[in-house]
């Protein structure tokens, strides 16, 4: 976990709140540190386990009391819908004492060795963490989404399924019925990962169609970021190469690092960067510029099918207060 100190924050009361999932490492942690340097933002950050949440609180304390006073930490294990729903309830409670929610950054994600790994709820793990959990969390918070608010999914160039965007390191997606994709099965974990990232593009497009105009869904691709914790479930050899050998690729187009990508991501949600927030609605942003997502990702039938299947598989239950437009 990074212990970097944020830039000095101006002594002003925050006027907006950002929710950052998976804030314990990588891009999420760099974004947390970046936001900490801007006193206009309060932060709710999620961590996967109580232990990681405590480490995150300790990091926040090192930012100093003024910064720490506007930050909250919530445990959210995206492999478990019980944990996701509990986190959603806690976030709603915290929002009662914080400025309006102005951005959700759905950063938490994972990649596994195969598509035969099973989540707590019986779903295929990659799809559960990268797609299902984010859908349920946003649904739980949907009534609190009042304009203007950005909802940012973290995309990946692997969804294109070509050499240019994945450097041949991860195989391309293989779309199927969403119910089938959600179930454990024999298969390559890389395919499961790229397919889940195609799913988040579909999810972003569909949310842009169904939500009021002041809700701004965006798919933000931080570029390939070697050295981050994304490959934590891969083999020891692959983890070593990802963390220590592949960072030398950062000079190549489409390759970035958490610090650089976090800066542009913060500029995007703060509406102060090269891509105006209003022009990014329903779009795909690669680090610092708008791009077209893959041709395969423009399929309204798949978008609707995915959204319907996610709700069918996960609720909403009677306890959820869901926005009328959902």
Overview of the molecule:
Helix content is 39%, strand content 13%. With 326 residues, it is an alpha/beta fold. An eight-stranded mixed sheet has the order 3-2-1-4-5-6-7-8, with helices on both faces. Strand 4 (101-106), helix 5 (125-141) and strand 5 form a beta-alpha-beta unit. Helix 1 (26-36) packs across helix 10 and helix 4 packs parallel to helix 5 (125-141). The mean pLDDT is 91.
Provide a compact summary of the structure.
It contains 11 helices and 8 strands.
Search tags:
8 strands; 326 residues; alpha/beta; 13% strand; 39% helix; 11 helices
Overall 3D form: globular
Q: Span between N and C termini?
A: 36 Å
Strand percentage: 5-15%
Helix and strand succession? EHEHHEHEHEHHHEHHEEH
Helix content: 25-40%
Total beta-strand segments: 8
Cα gyration radius (Å): 18 Å
Number of helices: 11
Mean pLDDT: 91
Class based on secondary structure composition and strand pairing: alpha/beta
Order of neighbouring strands in the sheet with most strands: 3-2-1-4-5-6-7-8
Layout of helices and strands:
Blueprint: E1 16-20, H1 26-36, E2 41-47, H2 50-62, H3 65-68, E3 71-75, H4 81-95, E4 101-106, H5 125-141, E5 149-154, H6 163-166, H7 178-181, H8 189-210, E6 215-221, H9 236-245, H10 258-269, E7 284-286, E8 289-291, H11 300-314
Parallel strand pairs: 1-2, 1-4, 2-3, 4-5, 5-6, 6-7
Antiparallel strand pairs: 7-8
Helix pairs in contact: 1-10, 4-5, 5-8, 8-11
